[in-house]
């Protein structure tokens, strides 16, 4: 199978490389601060977590435009309306499930998040070379588990209030046996993927994994997740979105990001404002930053399900045009 052509890879790289550089810089700063200062401890973590979740909201705000970008033409009005209606319906169903079956919804949310986070990072690395990662299922787990499993396994006291905010019964995940299993599973997935990546000459993959594991092992989990969600996962996904919008191709080919980012901001502003308004309504009467986080997690759970559906569809289409890992590393 043919790899992506040089011009297209250049368009992909300028956005993905900048996003990856930003995410690595922020996470390394968090790691350094955690190792050499005590300023990340205490109640401030809740404020930073709320801020990180808010910063990350826009990355899913243009999902309704993605099908048209991928297909290379605007969707017919009726089709576009059906896409938007379906998106809202799935989000509403997820929120209803969370309201009436919180344990089931929260457990599903955590599992889906591992797959979604992991697939996002794997997609970044595959898009930059046009080749699939060898051992892809392990790679998805290796990139997805640190943000979810390591805080529970290593910092149970700090994450217990967050789990309780999702569903009180989820605090059972902090039991010693569960924590050991989560830690072992994460180490195996990360180790396997790192070894395969280094053998294939893909040092970037191993470096990203090392940074993720170090940050979530050392930094306070609320701070680590805020930085991860807002400046790693969301930033990298926005980098992917910039390459999808046909209006950005000339700017990206010339290494210009300002106008693509402004286009994205304009497209994302309306849906993001609606999400923030809904969040404010959910938070009304909850009180305190912990109430804000709990409300935000409920909204995030609802929005995650249709967002994952759109991104999974996008990944499948891209994967159909990507060469496999048996090709010589680029």
Question: What's the short story on this structure?
Answer:
The protein is mostly helical and 330 residues long. It has 13 helices and no strands. The protein has one domain.
Helix segment tally:
13
Mean pLDDT: 85
What is the subunit arrangement here? single chain
Distance between the amino and carboxyl termini: 14 Å
Strand content: under 5%
Number of domains: 1
Roughly what percent helix?
over 70%
H/E topology pattern: HHHHHHHHHHHHH
Unreliable segments (pLDDT under 50, ≥5 consecutive)? 1-7, 323-330
Note the main sheet. Answer: none
> What best-fitting shape do the alpha-carbon axes yield?
globular
SS content category: mainly alpha
How many strands appear in the DSSP assignment?
A: 0
How big is the Rg? 19 Å
Describe this structure in words.
The chain is an all-alpha fold. The protein has helices at 6-36, 44-56, 66-71, 77-100, 102-129, 136-154, 156-166, 176-199, 203-218, 221-244, 249-253, 258-283, 288-319. It has one domain. It is built from 13 helices and no strands. α2 packs parallel to α13, α4 crosses α5 and α6 (136-154) packs antiparallel against α8 (176-199). The longest helix is centred in the C-terminal third of the chain and has 32 residues, at 288-319. The two termini are 14 Å apart.
């Amino acid at each position: 199978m043919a790899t992506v052509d040089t011009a297209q890879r250049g368009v992909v790289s300028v956005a993905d490389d900048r996003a990856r550089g930003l995410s690595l810089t922020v996470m390394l700063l968090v790691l350094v601060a955690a190792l050499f200062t005590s300023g990340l401890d205490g109640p401030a973590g809740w404020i930073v977590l709320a801020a990180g979740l808010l910063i990350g909201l826009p990355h899913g705000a243009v999902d309704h435009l993605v099908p048209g970008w991928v297909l290379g033409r605007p969707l017919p009005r009726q089709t576009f309306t059906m896409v938007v209606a379906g998106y809202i319906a799935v989000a509403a169903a997820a929120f209803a499930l969370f309201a009436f079956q919180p344990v089931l919804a929260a457990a599903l949310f955590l599992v889906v998040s591992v797959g979604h986070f992991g697939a996002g990072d794997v997609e970044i690395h595959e898009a930059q070379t046009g080749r699939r990662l060898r051992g892809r299922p392990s790679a998805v787990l290796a990139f997805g588990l640190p943000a979810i499993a390591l805080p529970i396994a290593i910092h149970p006291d700090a994450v217990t209030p967050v789990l309780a905010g999702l569903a009180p019964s989820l605090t059972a995940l902090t039991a010693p046996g569960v924590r050991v299993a989560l830690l072992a599973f994460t180490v195996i997935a990360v180790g396997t993927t790192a070894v395969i990546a280094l053998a294939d000459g893909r040092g970037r993959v191993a470096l990203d994994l090392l940074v993720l594991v170090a940050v979530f092992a050392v930094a306070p989990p609320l701070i680590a997740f805020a930085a991860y969600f807002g400046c790693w996962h969301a930033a990298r996904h926005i980098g992917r979105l910039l390459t999808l919008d046909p209006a950005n191709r000339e700017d990206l080919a010339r290494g210009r990001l300002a106008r693509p980012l402004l286009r994205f901001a304009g497209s994302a502003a309306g849906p993001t404002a609606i999400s923030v308004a809904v969040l404010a309504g959910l938070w009304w009467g909850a009180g305190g930053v912990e109430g804000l986080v709990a409300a935000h997690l409920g909204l995030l759970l609802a929005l995650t399900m249709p967002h994952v559906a759109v991104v999974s569809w996008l990944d499948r289409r891209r994967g159909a045009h990507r060469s496999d890992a048996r090709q010589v590393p680029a």
